[in-house]
Design a protein that fits this description.
Elements lengths: L2 H18 L1 H8 L4 H28 L3 H28 L4 H5 L5 H16 L2 H25 L10 H8 L1 H18 L4 H27 L6
The protein binds 5-(aminomethyl)-2-methylpyrimidin-4-amine.
């Protein structure tokens, strides 16, 4: 069994629960309250600023030029592709780029990015990939589920662009590249090392679920 298959099995319940979360279902059905989506957009924008840095760490930790270039491409795609989507949504809602950048991360957002940045700085390349992979892979899964199971989700006047981007082959190929890279890098690795990687993957899959729940519930600092 490939290591990525083992990881997928490990978190399949969590990812399934994510697909059933009212925020995600609301985007599929198109009845998610717009205020919830705006909260998500703003929180996700500051999340993506830190998330981009993980790809920069990937470039530093890569062991060959091809992998360095691929991480640099991912960094570029996040800053100029994925974050453009957020900037375009913000414009529609009358939110400036400055306002987006000034968003204060909620406790869960902060805990999630700090966890990944800590792994990126102190862990191996394999650990870094295992920690960030649920971000790319679970979004691709959500995009595909919404595009497949909810009629008209890809053309919805508000959430259609989100569904289209994350279900796209282009986004999927970036996720696949990372999945394949992790499979290659983990071939022949001892069980104790794989267990550490699996734990990172599980933790950030949990954070992904908590992020959806946080933007649905509010999730602000209590004091
Ligand atoms: C919280 C979160 N996780 C993942 C993704 C997909 N890059 C995202 N935009 N936001």
């Amino acid at each position: 069994m490939k290591f990525s298959e083992r990881l997928f099995q490990k978190v399949s319940d969590i990812w399934e629960k994510t697909h059933q979360h009212p925020f995600v279902v609301g985007m599929g059905k198109g009845d998610l309250p717009v205020e919830s989506f705006i909260r998500y957009m703003k929180q996700d924008y500051v999340f993506l600023i830190d998330y981009s840095k993980l790809f920069a760490f990937g470039t530093v930790k890569a062991r060959d030029i091809e992998t360095m270039a691929a991480f640099a491409k991912l960094l570029h795609e996040t800053l100029h592709g994925e974050m453009d989507l957020h900037r375009q949504y913000a414009e529609r809602f009358g939110i400036t780029n400055e306002q987006l950048e000034e968003t204060k991360p909620t406790p869960i957002n902060l805990a999630y990015t700090r966890y990944m940045l800590n792994v990126a700085q102190n862990g191996s390349l394999e650990e870094l990939i295992s920690a960030l992979l649920p971000c790319m892979w679970s979004y691709w899964e959500i995009g595909k589920v919404l595009a497949r199971d909810y009629q008209g989700a890809s053309s919805h006047y508000l959430y259609g662009e989100w569904v289209t981007m994350y279900s796209s082959d282009e986004f999927g190929s970036l996720a696949e590249w990372l999945i394949n890279l992790l499979d290659q890098l983990t071939e022949g690795k001892p069980e104790w090392e794989l267990t550490i990687l699996e734990e990172h993957f599980l933790t950030t899959s949990r954070f992904e679920y908590m992020f959806w729940d946080m933007v649905y519930q509010g999730g602000e600092w209590p004091v």
